[in-house]
Amino acid sequence: MSTRTFKVDYLARVEGEGGLYVKVKGDSVLDVRLNIFEPPRFFEAFLRGRNFREAPDITARICGICPVAYQMSSVHAMEDACGVKVEGPLRALRRLIYCGEWIESHSLHIYMLHAPDFLGYPDAIQMAKDHADVVQRGLRLKKTGNEILSFLGGRAIHPVNVRIGGFYKVPEKRDFEPLVESLKWARDAARETVLWTGRLPFPEFERDYDFVALQHPEEYPFNEGRVVSNRGLNINPRAYEDNFAEVHVPYSTALHSVLKGHGSYLVGPLARYNLNFERLSPLAQETAREASLASTCRNPFQSIVVRSVEVLQACDEALRIVDQYERPDRPFVDVQPRATTGYGCTEAPRGLLYHRYRLDDKGTILDAKIVPPTSQNQKAIEDDLRRFVGKYLSLPQETLGLQCEQAIRNYDPCISCSAHFLKLSLDRQP
Amino acid sequence: MLVIGIGNDYRGDDGAGLLVARQLRERVPSAVTVAEQGGEGARLLESWRDAEQVYIVDAVRSRARPGTIHRFDAGLHPLPAPLFRDSTHAFGLAEAVELGRAMNQLPASLTIYGIEGKRFERGAALSPEVLTASEELVKEILENIRRLFLPLEAEGGLQYN
Lengths: 430, 161
What we know:
The complex is a heterodimer of chains A (430) and B (161).
Chain A: E1 3-8, E2 18-25, E3 28-36, H1 43-47, H2 55-59, H3 67-82, H4 88-119, H5 124-130, H6 132-153, E4 162-163, E5 166-167, H7 177-198, E6 212-215, E7 226-229, E8 234-235, H8 240-243, E9 244-247, E10 256-259, H9 269-276, H10 282-290, H11 303-324, E11 341-348, E12 351-359, E13 365-371, H12 373-391, H13 397-409, H14 415-418
Antiparallel strand pairs in A: 1-2, 2-3, 4-5, 6-7, 7-8, 9-10, 11-12, 12-13
Helix pairs in contact in A: 3-4, 4-5, 4-6, 4-11, 4-13, 5-6, 6-7, 7-10, 7-11, 10-11, 12-13
Chain B: E1 2-6, H1 16-25, E2 33-37, H2 41-47, E3 53-60, E4 69-73, H3 81-84, H4 93-102, E5 109-116, H5 128-154
Parallel strand pairs in B: 1-2, 1-3, 3-5
Antiparallel strand pairs in B: 4-5
């Protein structure tokens, strides 16, 4: 029986350096490997020996697309360690800056990276030749997200205004005015985005995933909640490592995560949406229905619609936060270190982001652990591909190859974030 | 008129574009905006949206002699992507130019200068070759600006910073 191999040496339109390897014999899929060769980053090691107050600025550097997620998981973990809870307007501002990040990250992915797959273009540039107005809308939406980041964070990438306990500086109510105008436009554009993505053609493909996301009693999750699944998992983020394990695989510099006793699981927009549909704003729920997106969605290709619903949710939520904002007396609450371990889970655009830090009584970081969403999704991506290739083996090789890439982009993988130390081989060239 | 220097100060010669921007900022008429950026494509598109005449300076790595100044008229031809694309990361200068072209959103005049770098290691200083080339390029851009503003200067209407 003949063996067929698909190889994509460099995946395009994903963040970072990765490849794909699929081996097929007859009509069975022998091997699927998402190959991550982004060099190791050593962030957990950099953090050791640093003061706990430096963590949000160091971890923000892990990603230029989702720096806020890293800042938020680290500040929450440190506050957890120090026994401090940030409430009121400071908590709301943290949700607001997270809205900005979801808007910019999701809009970039929806319009520039993922949509061309559905419309049959090799990239956004070719797509723009026929759909200039659509691409314009995407770019302007992305810009609105960046405006929130600049406004609250001090700059559009790697914000500098976030600190343990709150912010260095907080805005006056009147400062929000220009932002409100942008956000009102963005909310309408986000609604159009949901309806537009809802009309894209989706390959027929569903999987019975283990969805994992944060869940909060009242809110669509950003910064706070329990880690839950659709299979009965319901834990405090502190118990994350009792329930999830990381494993090395030789072909990836990113660790693979498994849910103990279950295997692969899925984090990110699809998981959040399925576990939290009723916590979306009425506008987001109604627009999802209008786009024929059911409250349960198991087709990973429809993640582009779900991401659009989340952009709408973020715009709606941002406007609500701005409307209710009252400037706090102080931009932060005092946090004093103590010798203990802190845990933080927040919802990065790509899914659950876990941080754990052990501190001494002076606040020196003794040990750090960071589990980014793309690591957690690697096995789910490979499982998707295994089944997808199995189902569509009769397609011409080129078409199937392209659809495999599209299937990977369903996850908006952020490879730079997920690359870990595994084994370093140095090839020294003159 | 807009001048954008692109680069990263912490990666040796990758800081060339930023250096040129900083040197120009002190010496251009106030009608010229000088910006420093990291090279993210969407932001570039946004920056040149309302500008007529745009100069962009970036470092490149093409195995030419370090300090070589490459000049491109982006209105006429696509940029040789390998020169301005050092990784597969999403969306940079070459893509921004092509996306701008596809959407009819390129400035009337878009000149892109690439300074050939020698070392891009973390924390390295700018190489002497690149320092010399940057000075030369600052003079060249200033001269271009001066020529464009000549009619205004003659009327005495030109303000310097």
